[in-house]
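dumping this here before i forget
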Amino acid sequence: MYSTLVRAAASTGASVPIKLLVLIMAFVVAVPLFRKVRAAASASRKRRWVEEGLMDPPTTDPGSGARSDQPEA
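structure:
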């Protein structure tokens, strides 16, 4: 029984690169996903604040390169 445990413990060392790859892939997927969720939550919160009158609507500065809803003349 002891030899079985030793072999099982020794064989788990080979799966470390696989676990590392899975961890890296999870990180690569999770970070952009969390950024999108945070951006959506922030936009929703700002929209709600504007609707409730707690915040002025965002303004666009013509020199900042930000897109506005009105076409340029």
